[in-house]
Amino acid sequence: MRSERHVFLTVMTAAMLVFSLTPLVLVSVFSVNASRFYAFPITGLTLQWYSDLLSDDRIWSSLLSSVLIAVGVSAISTCMGTAFAFVVVRGTGRFWRTASVLGFIPLAVPVLVLAAALQVAFVEIGLPLGYGTVIIGHTIFATPFVVLMVVAQLFRYDWRLDAAARDLGASAVETFRHVTLPILMPSIRSGAILGFLLSFNEWAIAFFTGRGFNTLPMLVYSMQRNGLPPSVLAYSSLIVIFVLAAVLLLLPFVLRMLVRGAAQETT
Amino acid sequence: MTAEENMPGATLEIAELTRHFGSVVAVDKVSLALAAGEIVAILGPSGSGKSTLLGMVGGQLRPNSGDIRISGEAIVELPPNKRPTATVFQDYALFPHLNVAENIAFGLRMHRWAKPDIERQVAHMLELVGLSGYERRAISQLSGGQRQRVATARALAVQPRVLLLDEPLGALDRQIRLRLQKELGELLRRLRMTALLVTHDQQEAFAMSDRVAVMRNGKLLQVATPGELYRSPHDAFTATFLGKGRLLSGTIVKQEAGMLVVAAEGATFTCRGEGQSGSAVEVLIRPEHVLIVPNGSSGATWQDVTVQDITPAGETSDIVLARGDFRIESVVLGLPVHKPGDKVAIGLAPSGPFVMP
Q1: Which of A42, A266, B181, B279 lies most in the core, judged by the most C-beta atoms within 10 Å?
Q2: Which domains does chain B have, with CATH numbers?
Q3: Phi, psi of B29, deg, nearest 5
Q4: To the nearest whole angstrom, how far is the Cα of B29 from the nearest Cα of chain A?
Q5: CATH: 3.90.1030.10, 1.10.3720.10, 3.30.930.10, 3.40.30.10. Which one for A54-225?
Q6: B 131-170 residues with CB below 8 A of A?
Q7: DSSP character for B45?
Q8: CA–CA separation, B29 vs B17, rounded Å?
Q9: Contacts of A163 in chain B (CB under 8 A)
């Protein structure tokens, strides 16, 4: 029984990995293929498409726009998400309970719908579309994810630590600064990375509410309108590597939370 | 600058303290006074309100009414960080992101001590609890007993006038608990610390404190020294919560040489206590006062008693004796010479049985 189950799990895991990684591997393979046509057999290796990509000035200005926006979104959504996580976990009474559910609605709304709605809203209230509107839109989109990250740790937070700090002479502010915040820092940091990535990779909201610049996803979208050039594959490969590195930063924390959660379930 | 000079214990007066949770009265007009340097344990089952009482002294909870004074100064209006108390929390509540020295230094930093003073005090505290050399250890690397010591050191470091301890040893294994009971009690006495201790463990209360307050359903039933409480409990709950024993209904026959003669279960015997002749009373007989003697012995209280059951409990054995429907427990050192089914008689130790008021 035990070994059968083991085989089953191995097969399923392998299938899942093949299924989810194949497109990424194909993109990487064709990004160094000498031919402009995406078909096997591989005709030769080249870094031509990478050099095309990196010599395109538009890439660098887009990268700058994307990073500027993502940094802003990461900072704002981390602060707001952390504060909101406290409302979710500690909020009592009908008002705060309702508020903590409403805050998660952006998670359930299709991003395209959110993007269109934001454009309408910004135009309606007369906010000029630009960096600011994209940052606001991305913040609305990313904050619930940050909240989830922080809430996961906050639900297990031992509030007696705060009581101990107060007992030892710390004011409420000092308690938050020296005890609550440092202990929550791993999940807040993960939330910040997640907020950055969500903004950095997001296309729809940027496309609908940004004017006067291209973020990287917007640029790639415009590049592939007349057929997919190989430099987009080169871009994709680089982005995959970048995101992979960021996820690896996140992963130990997420795994630790899962393991701890499971351990608490069993005790 | 020694700890002894640093930490003058203060008096603690609790007057008519009351706290409701909704319609439940968790603490009901409790009054209790601690002399400077006195250690008092509040002993009660879970839900008796003892932790609520402690929380109100520490400032984690606000009372609905009543007064708390430390050295005569009212503290009810003060937030926990302004109170001259420090708490050793249940399960310690040590800061997981700080090492041992940083945990102990936390309160001193909050009280704006100068850095060299903090270092000196931390070293002194670690020495006091026997953990010198553990400064840089992470909390997760410590055993339960070591965590307890760090929690004690962290609370003592801020030089509280009154130390509050919430089930300080409850999370520990029996053997470590017994050792720490002694150590912690001795430490508090050496520092002449006024301490209020909450526990559900009778042994812990008796081993560490000068007086024990028995609490039940939000009320203090009796406050007395451990010996007095055990020998002369004022009610059935206290009598049975603090050890084993049999409560018999009887009648006072007469008073004789400062003692009472009581008739119960077809026998008469002398008891400690007070009461009027002819009044119905409850008599407490502890197992160690029930002496097994050969059947037919003159002066035995009950004859023709059967040994019903023997339970060896290590250094002692518990023996259940039966006479008709009447059951009473005895205890002997080591293994008993009797077997179940033996016919014996019961003698009662002089000044053992107690007539409860």
Answers
A1: B181
A2: 3-240 (3.40.50.300), 244-355 (2.40.50.140)
A3: 50, 55
A4: 24
A5: 1.10.3720.10
A6: 154-155, 158
A7: -
A8: 5
A9: 60, 80, 87, 89, 93
